Amino acid sequence: MNKPLLPSKRLDEVDRQKQYPHGALMQHQEEPAYHLVQKINKIIASSSTPKRMLQDIAKVLGVAFKVDWCSLVTVSLEVSSEAITANWSVQENLELSETDEMFSSAQQLDLPVMECASETLTIEDISTIQKSLAIGRQSLPLTIKAKAVLAIPTRFGGKNNGVIGLIKSQPYNWTESEKKLLNAVEPCCAIAFSQVAQAQQIAGQNQYVQTYVQHQSLIKQLTVLSRSNLELNQMLQLALASTAEALQADRGLLILLKYTDPLFRTRAKKQIPKAKATVVGKWHKETEIALTPQLDTSETSFFLADCSLCQRAFLDSGKPLIINDDTDLQDTLTVAPVFALEVLSAVLLMPLEIQGKVLGFLVLQQAVARNWQSTELNIVQMVCAQLSNAIIQTQTLRQVQTLVDERTAQLQRSLEVQAKLYEVKRQQTEQLQKLNDLKDEFLSNISDRLRHPLTRMRLAIRNLRQIGQLNERQIKYADMIEQDCTDEINLINDLLTLQELETRHERPQLETTDLSAKIHDLAAAFDSKLADKGISLSLDLPDSPLTLETEVESFDRILQELLTNASKYSQHDTVVHLQATHQVNQQVDQVIIKMINIGHGISEEEATYIFDRFRRGKGRWTPGTGLGLALVKSLVQHLNGAIAVESTPIEDSSLSKICFTLTLPQFSTESDSYSQSD
What we know:
By secondary structure, the chain is α+β, with helices and mostly antiparallel strands. Helices cover 44% and strands 20% of the residues. Helix 5 packs parallel to helix 8 and helix 6 runs antiparallel to helix 8.
């Protein structure tokens, strides 16, 4: 960077007093670096959103340095990530925030004097500062003219992740104390930029997960529809609605072709056959566009030769036809009115094709142009393949039923088609299994990525406590944040434990434990928790010592989750009974543990899914994740045991007696009869 030009004339004292009513320029002694850093750290710890955090930091820096404008701009090495700016202006105390602005070479910042507070400056730093200030300049009020700039790049993990820009509207010589102060606040600002980058990354990952879940849900719905006994038109309508809604289109159409020759065995290349196109399915989003008169046309059929849009899709069968606006059409006058291009000018048209025969078209329309992703196009192609299969299956069955005695050859072709369709479905099932494996791998990776920042947040809170200087209110908020971090980490650990139990069928590490002593210890740990709700715990254990060959860690977790469940859903001033017995049933040595509590009953429907992930009983508002009983079931299966729940209504009462029965095999250390299957 060139050496800054010195101003030829100092700011008049009267003008200086008007611009800065508090007196002389900032001195390092009046605003020590320690206090400024503490203010920024408090903002980082207490801000509700990353966007608001940067805005507050910009204001603190702008006031501390007494500048006309303070700009904070994020820097990312990823091409897909867009810059986030936070600006503070002294003019009328105006706060501005602009996001998603890209740097343009035509918007270079015209600054007569620009200095950098960093002692070690590279060419990359100079370029980063210039680009970031140009981005921030886009949101600067036109009334502010930049005459002096002091900037510094922030570094986190050895890489630039942001730029701090301080700008004055009058010529000014930056002091060494101001440069040192800006250097002092650079590390904590780098942390703030890092948190913003992490928030962007998490938001992107959440969006990816949401899209992935929507696509998986669509695949499952279509699979169920293809195996259902619904009438063809009803199935096509449901499939169209599910596809258009999942892909967030404004409107969807399903068009089928009827040929003069129903089989359409042969056709010359580039030849448009005589066929009638009929709209058999419509769907539109509940928006103002749906109320326009153009969409209420009564014309639902037309000839293929009268619509240039369908002709192009027909000739390029197997490929999607994408129209973003009217300029993409060679002849808009020959487009069928049913498309209503004057309202929905963006069109995605995918042929329904099987074995070279075009059965119709799946149409998705939007009011504005859309950049379709390859994954979305793949989903649409898969939907068209399944719909084509369903249509062919229906037509084939109808023909077989009416012509079985007259057309033996046609029946043979139908059987061949069925065999090929079966192979397609088998391949799709294998693909779904691979997608499920990818889902498990993704869940493991994303859980680890989520756990890392949560652990760092908890560590940062503990470090803040060690530093001290937190008032009672701040300590309360720090405790709340730390507890939330701990709960989220426990949730992620439970998810990973469930995944490991489902994917790794390892033999439990058995050891002998005193069951009576173990139950007494666990009961003692829950006494205070139960007593807070007015619930007492009653133990019914054998008089003689009862030992159990089991995996102690898994057994402890099972009882802890059952006791936690009882404490949550038991009625106040009731008794929770914990009973353990030993019995031999059909020459099988078993230990039976029953947990009985009084609360709202569990219906038969709820009992079928109460042990599933994230499934909870209806009408239960007690906080929880819905993973406790799912984890219990997986651990019990890991120990080769069984668990069941039974709800018995109490006479003359709205409450019921809920009993969880845990059955565990009594293994012997010399036994080789253990089965590794769950």
